[in-house]
Design a protein that fits this description.
By secondary structure, the chain is α/β, with parallel strands linked by helices. The protein has a single domain, classed as Beta-carbonic Anhydrase, Chain A, CATH 3.40.1050.10. The protein has twelve helices and five strands. The N and C termini lie far apart (52 Å). The structure holds zinc ion. The site of zinc ion has 7 residues, from helix 8.
Amino acid sequence: MSSLKNNLTKYRILTLVFALAISSLMMGCNKATGTASAPTTDNKTATNTSPTSTASSHSEAIPGDPKSSLDTLLQGNDRYVNGSLQARDLSKTKLEELAKGQHPHTIIVTCSDSRVSPELLFDQSQGDIFVIRTAGNVLDKAAMGSIEYAAEHLHSPLIMVVGHEKCGAVTAATKDDPVGGSIQYVVNEIKPAVTRAKGLGGDLVAKSVDENVKLVVETLPGRSQIVSHLIKENKLKIVGGTYSLSSGKVNVVSNLEQSPSAVETKTESKTEKKG
Ligand SMILES: [Zn+2]
């Protein structure tokens, strides 16, 4: 208990020091003050003038590149797996700071499954990640609009698609039974991944979960001119991972080197029919 108290005290001191450093930076720079009060303006200035992010100060960190975003997520997942979650700063001061604007370091696309809460499994706090959740982590127009907003206006440099072990939506897509209603849309989106998985052998549901993540990563640029443009300008990368319900571990199945290239508009209009 006393070590927890010590840690909390250290954390509060660090928060205070950081807040003082930021306010002195802002006082000396009118442009930075403007950035802080306008969430949709360019946050590159804030990113570039912020101290380098570290694993131990996730709530203040604003990783400015895809690699540091991914590192932040994977380090958070390590803490989750090891049961060493960080104390979250949900103080009034922190909430007031967040009310001025958001700078999420990653856009997470994951399943709606109640056992796959991204803030928990990546040990992230308010304001850290911009989350889109649908059954089977499939994309539709609303999901794409949400991704475009965060990528274009909040300047998040990374999209991470996260599937999970024993996904019900993926399991349904491995069967031929009609599901009815709008669930059919979800299943139809996953079917191509199941087809790919059938050629790989092994456990069909597990392989389909992996392939579904990879397929969403691969097809994302073709669904959006905005996403494709940001990739072309080297401002955005897309990775994929799968979450193990039993161990809590997120395994990367599509890494930064495999991040898809920009796609021509022609391909976009072709895939657009799906949404
Ligand atoms: Zn699921």
